[in-house]
Amino acid sequence: MTSTRALFIGLLSFSAISASSAVSSAALDPELKSPYQIRLVLSVAEHRMLTPQFHKQLESDLRDQLQLAFGKLAQVEVVRAHPLLGGIRNKGLQATLDAWDELSDSRTVFVLVDFADGEYRVQTGQHDGMTGLSNPVVRRAAVAVPQRVADTAARLILDDFGVVGTFQSVEGAEVKLAIKGGQLADSLAPWIKVGDAFAIVKITKEGAALRAAPVEWAILQAVAPPEGGHVRCRYAYRYSGDQLLTDRPPIAGYRCIKLPTKTAPLRLRLVNQNTGDFLNLKVQVSTNPDFKGELVEGAAVQGLFDPKVAFTNVAYVKISSGGADLTGAIPVPLVDDRTVVLRMVDNPKAIQQGEVESQKQHWLRRYVEALALAEHRLSQFNDVLTPKTLERALKLGRESLEAMAADMNSLATMRGDIEKRAAEIRMDPPPDLRDGQRMADALARRHDQLKKHLVAVEKALKSSDETRELEATLQRAVGLEKQADFEPSI
User: Fold this and answer.
1) What is the tens place of the pLDDT at every residue in 398-418?
2) Which overall architecture, per CATH, does domain 263-346 show?
3) DSSP letters spanning 302-325
4) CATH of domain 4-30+163-258
5) Per-residue confidence band for 297, with pLDDT thresholds at 50, 70 and 90
């Protein structure tokens, strides 16, 4: 499981130049005309001041206030039981939310109410089922009179509520989002403003199930007001492996959720990732990733950089030493006043080697995706490999063979780029690419396997009906035997 806070703390350099337009349209339903299903879990502690009448009034007032605020955008349901409440009591709300990455159709909002030291104490936290992400910060407040508890809880929930977007297209560094419920609300202006930041997740399909994984240190920022249920954003990514956003299987698409960022001071702690020592390095901070305009500059003392300057939504940070850049622009979404710890190395050579290693890891991930896609293509081919659908099977097989060859060529080019960059920086030892070579060999075998099947199908199409039936059955059986999941054959 991946903690939501991993979206805000990372180790390597960041690049915000441009993204390739590999995502042409979203395979995921953006649900433009579907309201958010908000399940509000209300848990009130046992205390003589928290009477049954207080429970009943709080539940009614909270539901009514939230429904009025959301209007058509959401449907609010209040419940008093949830499987995670036991864990929340034992571990706390923040720890429980950090460990929860489940996908569902609803937004779960926890409201915990207690009474201590003459105060009504409220905690709220949210988990979004469409992205599998929870809010990075649990909100707390205290009031003196019971009549203000519902108002306070509603304010905390609304302040933290983040709309969900689904990627529709990527052109250069610009991403067009479709917002869930965006065509239900009279206006999305109360929910999205220029400069707002979004955290991104990659949705993959594993069998019949969907899984979500945060694209760490990648964010979107709205560059224009929402219009027609859509909003234009600037895509900024940290790892070079996230430059190309693909929606090929098993990737089903990308979603994002607006972060509860604010205007707040930036405090950084620079730490050597290998030794744990504090790093006293030069820091530059900008309000935009291209670092144009006025910059805030200074040096970390005992590893701490505290310029006592507030930034809005996101601050971009560069670290350097002796005139040499040690990082690119690192984005820091500002969601609270905590010190952000940046773990890094202060050796430019090590940073260059880390970038090559990052390239290699992205290359390996692409091979894993390509192999999964190859298995998917072979499965589709086998599904239509019947005597009555040989022509369709041949067409699908040829298309799949061409796509597989394109994957092989693209991945071979990526390997060449890795080897070239390693040679340029005189990386010693050179990167170990043996795992990638093994996957390349496996992908080539699947390519050759499909090619042989197509030859047999072409031959069967020229044969008698009886031979065609026999050939189709045999070739389908061979394909099933060779699939990675070893499905039963004849």
Assistant:
1) 988 998 898 898 899 889 989
2) Sandwich (2.60)
3) TTEE----EEESEEEEEEEETTEE
4) 2.40.10.170
5) very high
